C-alpha cells in the first residue's frame, strides 16, 4: 500500500456515512495491529520498535500512532520517550471483562434478599459505566445493563456515578433523553440533584427509568473513600416509601461489603 493510499484510507476510518472503500479495511487492520503491538510491548514502546516488530514502514506507523493518540486509544508519555495504552482502552477492557463477586460478598447479598421482598442488586463502577455484578434472580432489575449506561441520568446507580464526576458532560449527551414523563431532562435540576446525592450518599429514581419502577441505591466505598460499587434495591413505583424505609438496611449491607469489594 502506498503512503498516499494509506493516508486516504486513514482519513476514511472516521467517516460517519457508513461507507467503506476497498482500502479502508486494510487501514483498520493495520491500526489494530499497532494497538496490539503497544499492548504487548508495554509502556514506553517507541514508534521505531513498533515498526520493526510489525515490519511496517515508519511513515505508516507514525500516521497510525497519531490517529490512535488523537482518539485516546494510545497516549504519548510526558517525556516523549514512547507510547502506552490510553484511557479509551480501559473502556473496552471494562466492557469485555465480566464482573466477578467473591463468595463472601454473595453471602451478604443473599442474606439481605432473604429479609426483604424487593430486588437486591450489586453493581460495580468503572470510570465511565455501571456493571451489573450480582442480580436478584427472583426480582430482576427493570432494564438491562446497556439501558442503564445509555441513561445514567434516569437510574439510581447511574446518578451515584454522575455525582462523583466534576464534569457530567463527559458521560452525558445533551439534551437528555426522556424515557418516561418523569425522567429528569433539565441539566440544572440534575446538577442540583447530584449535589444532594453527594451529600446524602443516596440516590433514587421513581418512574424515571420505566413508568412502574422505583429504585434506591447506596454507594460501597473503599477505605480511602473511592466509589467501587453500589447496592441497589428495586421495586414498583407505588412502593417508593417502602423502599425508602430500607435505606438503613442497605447502608449496613454496603458497610459489610466494603472490605470484601474494595
From TrEMBL:
Pfam families: HTH_IclR (PF09339), IclR_C (PF01614). Residues 25-87 form the HTH iclR-type domain. GO terms for biological process: negative regulation of DNA-templated transcription. It comes from the Bacteria. The keyword Magnesium does not apply. This is DNA-binding IclR family transcriptional regulator. Keywords: DNA-binding, Transcription, Transcription regulation. Residues 76-262 form the IclR-ED domain. The keyword Magnesium does not apply. It comes from Mycolicibacterium fluoranthenivorans. Residues 1-20 are annotated as: Disordered. PANTHER family: HELIX-TURN-HELIX TRANSCRIPTIONAL REGULATOR, ICLR FAMILY (PTHR30136), HTH-TYPE TRANSCRIPTIONAL REPRESSOR ALLR (PTHR30136:SF24).
Amino acid at each position: 500500500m502506498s503512503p498516499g493510499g494509506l493516508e486516504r484510507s486513514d482519513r476514511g476510518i472516521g467517516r460517519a456515512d457508513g461507507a467503506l472503500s476497498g482500502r479502508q479495511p486494510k487501514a483498520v487492520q493495520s491500526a489494530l495491529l499497532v494497538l496490539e503491538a503497544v499492548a504487548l510491548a508495554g509502556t514506553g514502546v517507541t514508534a521505531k520498535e513498533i515498526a520493526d516488530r510489525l515490519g511496517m514502514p515508519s511513515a505508516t506507523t507514525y500516521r497510525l500512532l497519531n490517529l490512535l493518540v488523537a482518539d485516546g486509544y494510545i497516549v504519548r508519555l510526558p517525556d516523549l520517550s514512547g507510547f502506552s495504552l490510553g484511557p479509551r482502552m480501559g473502556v473496552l477492557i471494562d466492557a469485555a471483562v465480566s464482573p466477578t463477586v467473591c463468595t463472601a460478598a454473595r453471602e451478604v447479598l443473599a442474606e439481605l434478599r432473604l429479609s426483604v421482598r424487593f430486588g437486591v442488586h450489586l453493581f460495580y463502577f468503572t470510570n465511565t459505566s455501571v456493571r451489573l455484578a450480582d442480580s436478584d434472580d427472583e426480582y430482576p432489575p427493570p432494564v438491562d445493563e446497556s439501558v442503564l449506561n445509555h441513561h445514567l441520568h434516569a437510574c439510581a446507580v447511574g446518578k451515584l456515578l454522575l455525582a462523583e464526576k466534576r464534569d457530567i458532560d463527559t458521560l452525558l449527551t445533551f439534551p437528555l433523553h426522556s424515557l418516561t414523563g418523569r425522567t429528569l431532562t433539565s441539566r440544572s435540576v440534575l446538577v442540583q440533584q447530584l449535589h444532594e446525592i453527594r451529600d446524602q450518599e443516596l440516590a433514587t429514581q421513581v418512574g424515571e427509568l420505566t413508568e412502574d419502577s422505583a429504585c434506591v441505591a447506596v454507594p460501597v466505598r473503599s477505605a480511602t473513600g473511592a466509589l467501587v460499587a453500589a447496592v441497589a434495591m428495586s421495586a414498583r413505583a407505588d412502593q417508593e416509601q417502602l423502599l425508602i424505609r430500607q435505606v438503613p438496611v442497605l447502608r449496613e449491607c454496603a458497610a459489610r461489603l466494603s472490605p470484601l469489594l474494595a
